[in-house]
Amino acid sequence: MSSPTTSAPEPPRYADRPEWSDVIPVEQYENVNPLAPIFYKDIYKDAADYFRGIVKTGEKSQRVLDLTERIIRLNPAHYTAWQYRYETLLAIEADLEDELRLMDELAITYLKTYQVWHHRRLLMLKIRKPATELVFIAKTFREDAKNYHTWSYRQWLLAYFNDDSLWSGELDFVDELLNADIRNNSAWHHRFFTVFQSGVRDGEQDTERILRRELIYVKQSISLAPNNASAWNYLRGILDHNGIPYSKMIAFVQPYTLPNDDQKADLVDLDNPPPSKDAHLPCAAAVEFLADIYEAEGGDSMLKATELWKSLGNEHDVARKKYWEYRIREGLRAIQT
Amino acid sequence: MDDGYPTPTSISQKATVALLVQPPISPSSASKIPQGILDNNLHLGYLGRHLLQGLPARYTSQDASQSWLLFWSLQSLSLLKVELDEGNKKRASDTILAMQNPAGAFGGGPGQAPHLLPTYAAICTMGIVGSPSTWSQINRPSLYQFFMSLKEPDGSFRVSQRGEVDVRGVYCLLAVAKLLGMMTRELVLGTREWVRSCQTYEGGFASATIGVGEQSAPLGEAHGGYTFCALAAWVLLESEFPSDKGSKSINLKSLRRWLVNMQGDEDELYGFRGRTNKLVDGCYSWWVGGCFKLLAELEERRGMSGKDAEEPIWNPEGLKQYILYAAQHPAGGLRDKPPKSPDMYHTLYCLAGLSVAQYAATASTTTSTSTTSSTSTSPTFRTIAQSAPSQTSNAPPSLNATDPLFNLTQTHAEAMMAYFKSGEVEAFQ
């Protein structure tokens, strides 16, 4: 809830501008004494009163762009001002590329606002130049690499225009972000989106090879920093998506379920990279994973699973004790029936 | 736990944990917060000040959310078992009705364009302060038309004309349709499948979904706010039009796992985060904490729950710690986390989360609103019931229960639904 800082002198009010004298400003509440009124600064109240006046007459003109820009800069969440601005741009056939350049500035200033990103989408539907947009978005990630709106806008661009030349740089782009922060879950999600949810792209027809590549990528990521929920979720995600049983991972997972002292240092298995030497072990996510393998085996293995769930609830993941107790109840019920 | 491999995520996590140290219990302190007790009067003062004296200029950022400001503050009062006097109830209804558009929907303020989100907040506020005489001023036929005009071929809805499509809008529309008795097959055709396709590989739900060639893919990662909206939307649809046996459902197993993993560890005072590897924030006490009742309802429908169904699968006692020690602001109101300022939004969603935690922790079935006492604390606020101080021990709930689908007390939600089901109301179609 940050208010924009104004270092420049305040611009003149619409009420003081002769060229606006033909507009009749409209007060917000006319016959109501509102509960929880906001004490607006004069400059905002002035602009909002004139905006209501404009909406009433339906005027769409260059000066409406000036007025809506002022409101947006004072309150970027004013969706009605955005909506009216967009209609005005179309009505007066304004240069939408100019508008996009203005948006480059506003998007960075008001990164967390729904409207700046939605307005951009509307503009892009007309301008249809998604490639330069991807470059702009990459720049905004320097401000905030997990901004939800920016990520969903990027994914929309890729999916909507769905052009091989757009998709082709995505994997390298994700790599760069994951190299900067291997715990960036937005980037992991984008990797999943790009690799598994974008259809089959040129050079990606060999699904076996893709899967091998992703498995080694995620295993290496886990090896670097084992207690990273994003990477474990990605591993589960690609196994589920491709219908691969978790048991295929048992050789990889097992060392992560043991304490640091029990690690075998001499073996080098490129398919199953071991935990880093500074890792905090045993890793709860690995114990959970191993328990899932035993649970899927059923029968006597269910008891091994319940032992692991017990150790999670009592030792490795105490905050979720009630969940692990639930898993034990459900597991035991499954073998009794 | 950075495994000796620090990155921006683990560095900000470490900084946050340092701020969340539980203060030592000091019974001699005048303030209740260090004792882990909900300071009802402090928060009532905060809410009363804002409602009656108004909001400072920084709330200009909420100028397009005015019905939300009323909903957040009045539902907070309801949870604290307090209601406005008749004069201010009328003022609240008049304020909301001034935001009603000829299209029948509500805008974020008078003269603002009709929009699904402020419409939900407006209708819920009317549920709290309204009565049949004000409810009759809700224009259902126009509102229904407006809803239909926002519908997309894939079953989703825009939030406004030319607005964005996301699960917030879908949830707000369905909640209002349910409260006002306007859920028709026509309205929700295709919506179920659209909501389902927002579930991500992590188990939680994303903001929306988009078709890529033959497939559809979630836009954005699993997120607490969107997950609440999607799950509540799903339950609203299931309860009105139960699905056929063979039809595709959401994945409850991965959802359950994702939800419990949003709860923080001891060093985070067991608060909830909204996404994997993000920081805890008081508002997810409701957005994530509120999901467990909905999940349990779905499990019950599928006959999945056994005799232990009332036993929570998450840690409600822990969540109380976060809200009472970290989210309560010493000057009143509740917040994201220290050292942030409180605001209306966090005040409601922290209190709603605390209510959920209190009822889950006692595993009690008492969910009714008490309406007995007539003790007056001030001419403006009327206490609906006396409440015992809340503590992090297994104390009986001090707050009212809130309905997991609407975030209204059951009394308010049921009265409104009963009115719109009754014969006095004109048809909307």
UniProtKB/TrEMBL annotation, chain A:
Pfam families: PPTA. It comes from Gymnopus androsaceus JB14. GO terms for molecular function: CAAX-protein geranylgeranyltransferase activity; protein farnesyltransferase activity. This is Protein farnesyltransferase/geranylgeranyltransferase type-1 subunit alpha. Its EC number is 2.5.1.58, 2.5.1.59. SUPFAM superfamilies: Protein prenylyltransferase. The keyword tRNA-binding does not apply. GO terms for cellular component: CAAX-protein geranylgeranyltransferase complex; protein farnesyltransferase complex. Keywords: Magnesium, Prenyltransferase, Repeat, Transferase. The keyword Nucleotide-binding does not apply. Its cofactor is Mg(2+). Belongs to the protein prenyltransferase subunit alpha family.
From TrEMBL, chain B:
Binds 1 zinc ion per subunit. GO terms for molecular function: protein farnesyltransferase activity; zinc ion binding. Its cofactor is Zn(2+). The keyword Lipid metabolism does not apply. Keywords: Metal-binding, Prenyltransferase, Repeat, Transferase, Zinc. GO terms for cellular component: protein farnesyltransferase complex. It holds the Pfam family Prenyltrans. Residues 365-401 are annotated as: Disordered. GO terms for biological process: prenylation. Its EC number is 2.5.1.58. Residues 365-378 have a biased composition (Low complexity). Residues 38-407 form the Prenyltransferase alpha-alpha toroid domain. Gene3D superfamilies: 1.50.10.20. It catalyses: L-cysteinyl-[protein] + (2E,6E)-farnesyl diphosphate = S-(2E,6E)-farnesyl-L-cysteinyl-[protein] + diphosphate. Residues 379-401 have a biased composition (Polar residues). Belongs to the protein prenyltransferase subunit beta family. PANTHER family: GERANYLGERANYL TRANSFERASE TYPE BETA SUBUNIT, PROTEIN FARNESYLTRANSFERASE SUBUNIT BETA. Catalyzes the transfer of a farnesyl moiety from farnesyl diphosphate to a cysteine at the fourth position from the C-terminus of several proteins. The beta subunit is responsible for peptide-binding. Heterodimer of an alpha and a beta subunit. This is Protein farnesyltransferase subunit beta.
